[in-house]
Amino acid sequence: MTNLMSYAGKRVVIAGCYSGMGEACARILTELGAEVHGADIRTSPVALASFTELDLKDWTAIDQVVATIGGEVDAVFNCAGLPQTYPAADVVAVNFLGIRHWSEQWMPRMRPGAAIVSVSSNAAMGYMQRIGLISEFVAIKDRAEALDWVAAHPDDVADGYGFSKEALAVWTQQRGVDLITQGKRINCTFPSPTATPMMSEFTKIAPQAVFDFFSKPIGRQATSEEQAWPLILLNSPAASFINGVCLPTDAGFTGGVLTGLVDMAAFRASLAGGQ
């Protein structure tokens, strides 16, 4: 029987392979037989087919890295990102604008049946409540114009993290409509708190109660591997009919919120009351 999860003979690229989910993806994909080409601002510890240093804020550098790696690919993994301890404009520039530009440079190089997957966040789970605003931003293609929009909407963008992940979700769903007509797919995941090196940055700006709440109902953070496997699944032939999906990878948190068993309103009230 054909192993639909096998990456033997597959050529893949990963943005953000230094640590966390991206490092786990790179490591597992090499074990699954893939030819893995990575890019990050810091060198990956995984033995890759190639590694290139890349700052996703620099679109010229993105174009150069794509040309350097070259060739066609079977899968694109977008695992790079900045936490909200960075300036909001930088967070949006990396987490959405850079990821989008990187992905769109690979789209013409994607073989039939190829797929893209990006790491969003369950911090973006309310994106449908302001899809008009997010769609307005996503429609801006020029980098400078997009950053001007960010500067002009400080209340909507806030610290940039949730907003950038919402934009990633909306763009994923929009591109899914046209990519599938080319025999290509695009999806993203909505992870809950995950024990990666970035978590230390998150804890600088939010109380522990936030991470405890978003870790419900399982009561612990995910491991990098637990988040990597859904990404690998979504880009595999096993997911050939899954497209334009924002998949919660949160051990039931989203389901609990949507059915009222995890009370988001009460949690927000407790934070507002300083409890």
UniProtKB/TrEMBL annotation:
Annotated Pfam families: adh_short (PF00106), adh_short_C2 (PF13561)
Entries under InterPro entries matching the protein: NAD(P)-bd_dom_sf (IPR036291), SDR_DHRS6-like (IPR051122), SDR_fam (IPR002347)
SUPFAM superfamilies for the chain: NAD(P)-binding Rossmann-fold domains
Domain of life: Bacteria
Membrane spanning stretches: none
Keywords: Oxidoreductase
One function term, GO molecular function aspect: oxidoreductase activity
Family of the protein in this entry: Belongs to the short-chain dehydrogenases/reductases (SDR) family.
Protein name: SDR family NAD(P)-dependent oxidoreductase
Native source organism of the sequence: Sphingorhabdus pulchriflava
